[in-house]
Amino acid sequence: xxxxxxxxxxxxxxxxxxxxxxxxxxxxxxxxxxxxxxxxxxxxxxxxxxxxxxxxxxxxxxxxxxxxxxxxxxxxxxxxxxxxxxxxxxxxxxxxxxxxxxxxxxxxxxxxxxxxxxxxxxxxxxxxxxxxxxxxxxxxxxxxxxxxxxxxxxxxxxxxxxxxxxxxxxxxxxxxxxxxxxxxxxxxxxxxxxxx
Length: 196
What we know:
Layout: E1 3-6, E2 20-23, H1 24-30, H2 35-60, H3 62-69, H4 73-101, H5 103-122, H6 127-155, H7 161-176, H8 178-181, E3 185-187, E4 193-195
Antiparallel strand pairs: 1-2, 3-4
């Protein structure tokens, strides 16, 4: 484990003014949870609410989707699941890629590719094209999932990492479900949603 020089009363050796090497992890053991951590957590929370809502939004237009492409509820289910299915192989691609081009590079390329493919899926003329673009957009989106949580957790004090890892994704997913539980939305036949 690498070490860095650390000064201060607790780190001073026998001779005053000298620093003793400390493991890098020691900095994170003593670090307080501050405003910067809270802002990063809030940004991550909002990002995952928006991302989850994008995936759930297709549920509200599923009736129109079935009519436009002439598909049954089973194929609508496949269309809804395509992004999540694409994330499985996507995470296997982006993980090793982040070691080569860095996490920042993965974030930039992942979001760019996801944006282009999501727009392409909105303009899909056939069901097959819709499935392909949604699957590929899931592969692209996996890059963000692969790097953001480890990136964020490594910035936190060691003692808060477990709680942050367990609460941030579940809180974002729960918040994204709010519209479906809000007044004015009702579930129709075949699992479609409409505004009443």
